[in-house]
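cron nightly-structures :: item 1 of 1
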Amino acid sequence: MTSPPAVRRRTKVDKFEDRRRELADAALLALADLGYARTSLRTIAEHTKFSHGLLHYYFDDKVELITYCVRRYKEACVQRYEGGVGSADTPSDLAAACADGLAAALEEAPLMHRLWYDLRTQSMFEEAFRADVAEIDEGLQDMIWRNVAAYADLAGAEPNCSPPQAYALFDGLFQQALLGHLSGRDTALDDFRRAVRELFPRLAG
């Protein structure tokens, strides 16, 4: 007995998406190592077990592949990070959990975060990136704002900044820490944790 057409179509879509995820995961190391400017689908294929033709079948070009990869990683990163701060029940605990979560995310995959900043910079030149970068940025801003609002609530205060302002401050600290970590500065992560913990009280009062 054959399955209804709708079921067959859904299965094909699921398999296609599973394959795209598999290819993207394999491409991440090459992308993170080489960056945007030095990669093409052919270069990525040379750094994976997959052929150039197969990559081109599932992704139109490197813009689509890179955006897909970074979006996939950032979504996973946000989920892991938010899971670590949800149990905090005092302002200081939340600030510490946030600092530890962000530092752990940075330490876990610095090259992937470097690729994200590369992609965000390229969006100023590549129009094809802009909508996806803006959507990812919005998700990260929402994540930061939820924690700032939660900190203020635990402290019995109100945020004294806007969501874009809070995001700009946290993102600036993160990027500075990333640069320090990549350059081999031993105190980069500890400095970052301290800066994040100290930033929270300044944003609620």
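cron nightly-structures :: done
The mean pLDDT is 86.
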